[in-house]
Structure formats: C-alpha cells, structure tokens
Amino acid sequence: MKHLPIKNPSFEYIERGFRQWLDVQGFAPTTVYALPNHLREFLYYLETAHQISQVRQIEAKHFKEYYQGLSMRSNTRKAGALSNAYLNKHLDALSKFSQYLRKTTRLDLPFFSLRRNKQDSKTIEIVSLEEIKALFSATDIHVPGTIYDAIASRDKAQLVCLYSCGLRRNECYHLDLGDINFDRNILHVRKGKNYKERFVPFSEKSKKVLQTYIYDHRPFFKLSGNLNALFLSAQGKRMGYLSMSLRLKSLIDKTELIDLKEKNVTLHTLRHSIATHLLESGMDLEKISRFLGHSSLESTQIYTHILEKDKKTHYENF
C-alpha cells in the first residue's frame, strides 16, 4: 500500500496513536498494520479534498463521500473495482478509529452509518484430532539433555497453550510464569482481547507438559532482561510471533501427514480446532464461548456450521 504524504503533524500523531492503541488492545499484527494505513487514506482525503486539519472539523458527510469515492475506484492490481472485502476493511478502520477517539480523548465523531458489503464467508481451516496427535508426537525428544530437548519441550508447551487452552497468539505471547497456577490447574490470561481477562483450566496431562518445560527445560534458554516471560527465545528474550509460527511450521513438516502439510495452518488454526473439537464432543456453546474469551455467542457460533450431523468425535484433552 502506498504511503500517502500527510502534511498535518496532528494527523501523523493521531495515526501513530491509533496504531499503538490497536496493539495494546490485543489485535492481530496484520490488523495493527493495516487499519492505520486505511485510516491514513481517509486523513489524506480530508487534507487534500476538504483542507481539514483538525479532527473536530470532520462531519458525517465526509465519511460518506470518502466511502463513495472508494466504491468507484478501480483496482490497480486487477480489472474491476475494489473488492467488498477491501472496502469492508476501510469501514472497520473508520469504525475502530471512532472507538479510539471516544475512549482515549472522549471525542465523539459525527454518527455515520455505512452498510458492510456482502462477501463470501471464508472457510475456517481445522486440524483434525489425528493431526493434533501427530503434532504433539512431533515434539517427542530424541536428543535428551541438549538444547534440542529444550526446544521440543517448549514446542509441546506452546501446543498446550494454543490448542488445549485455546489461547490467541497475542495471549500466548504475553504469558508470564506467574500466570500459571499449578495448585488449581488454572492459566490466567491477562492480555486478552479488548483488555478482557479470563481464567482457563487445563488438564493433568497439560499440567505435566507445562511443569516439565518450566522446571526442566526453560533454564536451557539464556535469560536476557525478561525473567518472567514463559516462552523464551534462544537469545533469552520473550519469544515473538514469527518464531512461534516457524516452530509450528517445523512440527508440521516433521509429521508424515500430507493432508496436514497442504493445509494453511496458523497459530490461530489451533484455537479454531479446539473450539470445533469441544463442540463436536458435546460441550455447551456458552461454555465454549467463556473458554475462548468471546464477548458474545455470535463469535462462537461460527463453529457450528463445521459440524457434520452424523459425525461424533471423541475429544481428548492433551
């Protein structure tokens, strides 16, 4: 996306603040990157088309005129107009921007009502129970007493957090040692989406995996300033999103399941998978919603269409 030249320093400041707010709220890195860029297009439009230099000058008509212009714009990458998905992302950016101003500056922008465009629903990628077992098996230790041993143990502990506990990537990233209560078998999610905290139970099997990693293998990683982070990199720092994704890709490559290798499996796929498996096993939708930390049942209901009426799958808590 082209970086449009905004001249107004206050708009530059607002864009940076919006980006930081999205990050603190726990949105995915792709969202933190994309939405401020879409907002920048809107700010550029205000500056060049209406000579607006202050947020307080924005009127409802500016939102509508801007969106109408987007709807008529041609797609530079391929023939035709901009996709509905792309237009909806701009709507998301404007909506989130309004929330940002209201919560951080108590400034209410003029009400604007723009209907989202219909688009084909995306297929949710799911990893089967057999494939989950294969991923856990791929963490089996082959070189005891080495850093490879520690990495394998860390991989298994991350599978427990991302799959067995259904954590979001950002929630897993922010986990600290103090967030795990082995006496009650509870994991405390402090950095949930939209500042929401929750407590997630884990099984005795998961408890053993986490204890083995923390007490036997985590000390293999050098400590570099962040002593409390649960998952450490080889440099002793808090393990980042990219490293976690690469480790999952490595586990997938270690399995001998061709179908799994052909899937587009991400860290969030594991969360989708546990939700589907719990639903298949007969767990109540409301309980799954609380387990995942959803703000409403609507977010959880996306998994119901995955179920096949005549298929019963036994869920094992790894």
Uncertain spans, ≥5 residues at pLDDT below 50?
Answer: 308-314
Q: Major beta sheet, specifics?
A: 3 strands, antiparallel
Estimated structural class: mainly alpha
What proportion of the residues form beta strands (DSSP E)? Answer: under 5%
Model description:
- By secondary structure, the chain is mainly α.
- The chain folds into two domains: 9-104; 129-306, hpI Integrase, Chain A, CATH 1.10.443.10.
- Helix content is 51%, strand content 3%.
- It has 13 helices and three strands; from the N terminus they run H-H-H-H-H-H-H-E-E-E-H-H-H-H-H-H.
- The protein has helices at residues 9-25, 29-49, 60-72, 84-104, 129-137, 147-164, 169-173, 204-217, 241-254, 258-262, 267-280, 285-292, 297-300, and strands spanning 180-181, 186-189, 198-201.
- A three-stranded antiparallel sheet has the order 1-2-3.
- A hairpin with an 8-residue loop joins strand 2 (186-189) and strand 3 (198-201).
- Helix 3 (60-72) packs antiparallel against helix 4 (84-104) and helix 6 crosses helix 11.
